[in-house]
Amino acid sequence: MSLKSLGVLLATTAICAIAGPVGDARAALPETAAAEMRAQPNTWFVQLKGPPTADGNLLQAVRAEKAAFRSAATKAGVKFQERFAYDKLFNGFSLNASRTDVERIKGISNVAAVWPVAVVDAPEPAAAPSPDLYTAISMSGADIA
User: Fold this and answer.
1) Residues sharing a CB contact under 8 Å with residue 113, sequence separation 6 or more, in sequence order
2) CA atoms within 13 A on the CB side of 116
3) pLDDT digits (tens, 9 = 90+) for 8-66
4) How many CB atoms lie within 10 A of CB 126?
5) Which is it for the CA torsion 34, 118, 20, 105, positive or negative?
6) What does the DSSP assignment read for 28-94?
7) Are the C-beta atoms of residues 94 and 43 closer than 8 Å to each other?
8) pTM of this prediction exceeds 0.85
9) What is the per-residue pLDDT across 76-129, written as a single tens digit (0 to 9) for each?
10) How many CB atoms lie within 10 A of CB 73?
11) Pairing between strand 37-48 and 81-86?
């Protein structure tokens, strides 16, 4: 996974945590952040109920839960394309599926939540502080305190 993809994943995961499952993630964000977010049509994060390996779960248990999800989704007639499977910090998937299929996915017993995936542009780097700020600490005596 590239560094840019990892950054997008982490930013999107943070937004999902703020927004809550299957809703408009932009509604929970400040207006400026919402404008920078682009929803990815029919792309979803599916969180499974078991904890990820970073929370002490065994890799075999996480993978078994994913296999159980795939089997249950197939039996339910869900059409989806798996994009990524996550084990370490998040136990779940990123997948492509229609809204109708997402409603079926939410009914699968080991699914904890489903969130829409969105791309958030990284903010522009802040301008460097003015040269006066470099000496402010010593001029105010804060370096001695």
Assistant:
1) 20, 21, 22, 46, 47
2) 18
3) 444 455 444 444 454 444 444 445 445 456 778 899 999 999 999 999 999 999 999 99
4) 6
5) positive
6) GS-HHHHHHEEEEEEEEEEEESSPPGGGT--HHHHHHHHHHHHHHHHHTT---EEEEEE-SS--EEE
7) yes
8) no
9) 999 999 999 999 999 999 999 999 999 999 999 999 999 999 888 887 877 776
10) 22
11) unpaired
In whole angstroms, give the CA distance from residue 9 to residue 89: 11
- Whole-Å CA distances, 57 to 45, 49, 53, 96, 104: 20, 11, 4, 26, 26
Instruction: Say which amino acid occupies 125.
Output: P
103, HSE (Cβ side, Cα atoms, 13 Å) = 2
Q: How many other CB atoms are there within 10 angstroms of residue 38's CB atom?
A: 11
